[in-house]
Design goal:
2 copies of one chain form a homodimer. Chain A is α/β, with parallel strands linked by helices. Helix content of chain A is 44%, strand content 17%. Chain A has 13 helices and 12 strands. Chain A has helices at 11-18, 22-28, 37-50, 56-62, 79-94, 109-118, 134-142, 166-179, 195-208, 221-231, 233-236, 247-260, 294-310, and strands at 68-72, 98-102, 124-127, 147-150, 160-163, 185-190, 212-216, 241-244, 270-275, 288-292, 318-320, 323-326. In chain A, the strands form 2 sheets. In chain A, strands 2-1-3-4-5-11 form a 6-stranded parallel β-sheet, sandwiched between helices. In chain A, strands 7-6-8-9-10-12 form a 6-stranded mixed β-sheet, sandwiched between helices. In chain A, helix 1 packs across helix 3 (37-50), helix 2 (22-28) crosses helix 3 (37-50) and helix 10 packs across helix 12. Chain A is elongated, with a radius of gyration of 25 Å. Chains A and B meet through helix 4, helix 5, strand 2, helix 6 and helix 12 of A and helix 4, helix 5, strand 2, helix 6 and helix 12 of B. Chain A binds a DNA duplex through helix 2 and helix 4.
DNA sequence: TTGAAAGCGCTAACAA
DNA sequence: TTGTTAGCGCTTTCAA
C-alpha cells in the first residue's frame, strides 16, 4: 500500500460511483442547493470513499470569486501586525474565506504583488500596511473587488476603511498624562508620514499646545531607544509626560530613559504608548497605553468586506475601532 | 469616468487586440516559451492597454498546481511564529509562490482546514504548528503534494523536515550555563509534549544529570512567570543555572525571578533561553540564549519544497538549522 | 428534483 | 514560430 500514485478523484468519479449526474454532485456540495436528502447522502458517501474534495480552482473559475482574500501585510514580525493578521485570518477563515498573505520585502514590489492577487479572482483585499498603487485600486473598483483599508489614508474612489481615530487617540493619550499629573509634554514619533502613527502624534501636539518633539529613525524599539538616549538627560528632563506613537517605541523609550539616561519612570517622567501589545504588560515595562481593539478591527473589516460583496454600490464607509485607556505603572495614576 | 463596471479582459480579448492567437498570448506570459520577441511585445502592449492579467485559477486548473502554498501556523501572535511566517512568506513569494495562511482557532479545526487546501491544488504545504491529520498527509503523498514540517515530529510516510536539533539545542544551553560557572541546573518547560520544546528540555536534563524541573501551564510569558513565582525563593535558590525552553518563557521567568522573588539575575541565578526573539535583546531583559537561524529555516524549507516538486520520489529528508550561542547579561560570561 | 450541455479562462499537444 | 483543438473540473441554465 506504499508508493502508489493516485489521480485526484473528480466530481465525475463521484457521480459514477453514486449513480447520479455530475450536477447532482455539485449540488450536494453547494449549501442550500436543491437536492433530495437521499441523493445528497449517496453523493457524500461516495465522495468520502473516494477521498474527493471540491476543486476550488474550478469552482472559482466558474463562479465570480475564489473565496481567497488577499491580505497585504509587511513587517509581520512586529507585535501589532502579527496580531492583526492572526485575528484577520481567523475571522476570514471562520467565514469560509482563505487569506492569501502578501508581504513585500521592498516597497517597490507591492504594486506587482498586489496586481497578481487579482489573477486569483480574490473575494476581496485587506490592506494592513503599505499603500497599494492607485492603478490597481482602480482595477479593483472596476471589477468590483472589495478593498478594506486598516488604519490607512483614504484611497481615491475605492476602499472601505476601519481606523482608530488619530484625533481621539492623541487626545486620549494626553488626557491620560494630564490626569496623572503631567504638565510638560513631549511626543516621540518616527520619521516619515503614516496615517495613523503621524496622525495621533499630531493630534497629541495640537491638543497639548507646547510640546517637545522627539523623532526616531523608524518605528523600531532600537530606533526609539537611540532617539531618546541621544537627546540627553537635561533636555528630556524638561518633559514630565511623554507620549510615544506606538508601544514598541514606548518600550524602547522606557529602556532609553531608565537604562541609558538613569531617569525614573514614572517619577521623573511619565510615559504613555499606543496599541497595548502584549509586551506592554510585561513586568519590566508595565506600560500605560491606549488600547486599540484589534478583535473589533478584524470583525469590522470582515463585515465591510461581506457587505460590500453583497452590495457593491454601497457608498464608501469609514468605521472606527474602540479605544480604551489602560493605566499601568509608567504613569502615576 | 466614475462608476462604470468592466468585465475582466481575457486572453481572448488580448489576442484579438494584438492580432494574434490565444496561444500566443499564453506564451507571451510563460517564461521561457517559444515566442518571437516581436509578438511578445505586441501582446504585452495590448495586455497593458486592456489591463489584462493572467487568471491564475484557470492556469492552475490546467497545469498541475496553482502556485499556492499552504502555510499552517497557529498562534501567529507569538514572536517566533510571526517571524517564521514572515520569512517563509517572503521566501515563497520571492520564488513566485503564494502563501495561503491557515490558522486554526481550535485544534479540532486543523483537519478540515488542511483538507480544503488540497482543493486549491496547492504546490505544497508548510507546517509550522499543529499536527496535521494522518489521513490528509496520506492524501498529500498519494497526489504527490510536497509537505515540509518545521520543528515537528516525523509524520509517517510523507513530509520533509527542517528542524533545530533538540539534542544539540539542549546541550548548547547547558554548555553556556556551565561555561558561565553554573553548577546546579534547572529547566523550565511547558506541560504537554512538543517535538522541539520538550525535546530540548529533555536533552538538557539528560546532559545535566541532576536537574530541578519546573513546569508551566503553557508556553506563554505569564504562565512561565507564574510557574517560577509559585515555586518560591527557597526552592529556586537551589538552582544557579536555569534553562527555559523558549525565550518567551525565559522572559517570563526573568520577571518572576527578579520582580516576584527578588532574586538577582545573573548573580543569584543565571538564565538561558531559546530562539533569540527580538525581545530577548531588549535592555530590560538582555537574555542569553540559543539562536535558531530562522532565515536559514525558511530557505531550507523552500529548497525542500522545490526539490520535492521536481523529484517527487526522492527519499524523505531531514535538514538541520544552524544554532548559535548568544551571550548576554542573564549569564555571567 | 434531476440530467444534459454549455461554458468559465487557460495551456499543451499537434500540425502547419 | 504560430494557430487550432481539446480538455482541466466545476457550476448553471434549461428541459424533462
Amino acid at each position: 500500500m506504499t508508493g502508489e500514485t493516485n489521480r485526484k478523484p473528480t466530481s465525475f468519479d463521484v457521480a459514477r460511483r453514486a449513480g447520479v449526474s455530475r450536477s447532482a454532485v455539485s449540488r450536494a456540495f453547494t449549501p442550500g442547493a436543491a437536492v433530495a436528502e437521499d441523493t445528497r447522502k449517496k453523493v457524500l458517501a461516495a465522495a468520502e470513499e473516494l477521498g474527493y474534495r471540491v476543486n476550488s480552482l474550478a469552482r472559482g473559475l466558474q463562479g465570480d470569486h475564489s473565496g481567497i482574500v488577499g491580505v497585504l501585510a509587511s513587517r509581520l514580525d512586529t507585535p501589532v501586525r502579527a496580531r492583526q493578521v492572526q485575528l484577520l485570518a481567523q475571522s476570514l477563515i471562520r467565514d469560509g474565506f482563505r487569506p492569501m498573505l502578501v508581504t513585500a520585502e521592498n516597497p517597490d514590489d507591492v504594486a506587482g504583488l498586489f496586481d497578481t492577487l487579482l489573477g486569483y479572482s480574490v473575494a476581496g483585499v485587506v490592506v494592513t500596511s503599505d499603500t497599494p498603487p492607485q492603478s490597481t485600486i482602480e482595477a479593483c473598483r472596476k471589477t468590483r473587488v472589495p478593498v478594506v483599508l486598516i488604519n490607512r489614508d483614504a484611497v481615491v474612489g475605492w476602499g472601505d476603511r476601519v481606523i482608530s481615530s488619530p484625533d481621539r487617540s492623541g487626545q486620549m493619550a494626553l488626557c491620560m498624562l494630564r490626569s496623572s499629573g503631567a504638565t510638560r509634554f513631549g511626543v516621540l514619533e518616527p520619521q516619515g508620514h503614516t496615517f495613523s502613527v503621524t496622525g495621533r502624534a499630531n493630534a497629541f501636539k495640537e491638543a497639548a499646545g507646547a510640546c517637545v518633539c522627539l523623532t526616531s529613525k523608524d518605528q523600531s524599539y532600537s530606533a526609539a531607544r537611540a532617539a531618546v538616549s541621544a537627546v540627553g538627560r537635561a533636555e528630556v528632563a524638561r518633559v514630565d509626560g511623554l507620549f510615544c506613537a506606538t508601544d514598541l517605541m514606548a518600550i524602547g523609550a522606557l529602556d532609553g530613559l531608565r537604562l541609558d539616561l538613569g531617569l525614573n519612570v514614572p517619577k521623573d517622567i511619565q510615559v504613555v504608548g499606543f496599541d497595548d501589545i502584549e509586551q506592554a504588560s510585561w513586568g519590566a515595562y508595565d506600560l500605560s497605553t491606549v488600547r486599540q481593539d484589534l478583535e473589533a478591527q478584524a470583525d469590522i473589516a470582515l463585515d465591510l468586506l461581506k457587505s460590500r460583496t453583497e452590495t457593491p454600490d454601497l457608498p464608501i464607509r469609514t468605521e472606527f475601532v474602540p479605544l480604551t485607556p489602560i493605566y499601568r505603572s509608567s504613569t502615576k495614576s
